[in-house]
Amino acid sequence: MTGLSRFVSIAAVALVAAGATACSDDGNKIERATGPSGDRSRGDVRTGLGGRTQEQGTLFGPGGLFGSKSEKKDDLGGGSGVAVNAYLWRASLDTINFIPLVSADPFGGVIITDWYTPSETPNERMKVQVTILDRELRADGVRVSVFKQQTSPRGGNWVDAQVDPRTNIDIENAILTRARQLRIAGGS
Known about the structure:
By secondary structure, the chain is of the alpha+beta class. It has helices spanning 3-23, 69-74, 86-95, 165-186; strands spanning 30-32, 44-46, 101-105, 110-113, 124-132, 142-151, 158-161.
């Protein structure tokens, strides 16, 4: 079984288990919640979830999958619902916006571009991977990896080429500068 099919199988089992748990009644009763004046205007609310109503229950911990409103206000990332710092995420997208994207995963914090050939150097192409490592806006919260290929003299096939290590650092610094600008503009 390949790694991807194993992951898909495990994810499917987890989803079925979560669905079965969510659908089971476990003896919980449906009650009518009463408003401040004693009326029953709020509708049905499931109780028996450890003393909490279903409205207060959470998915994957306090605040739910995307966090509570109060957590979003306190979040250093600007409360966008992403699992990484939103300023670094937005700054990364802004910085490499001239390269087409292949993948952008805000929960994992990984952005992968397609191969890009600058018009100045048609025999070279590059690909960029940005990884956001933290929920906080920190200098070590982003890592950039640049991959470069050149056409070979024989055959014209693309072959891997050495990337100047300074290139990665320059892109990281550009992302951090843009993230700081976004944070200042956001009023935080």
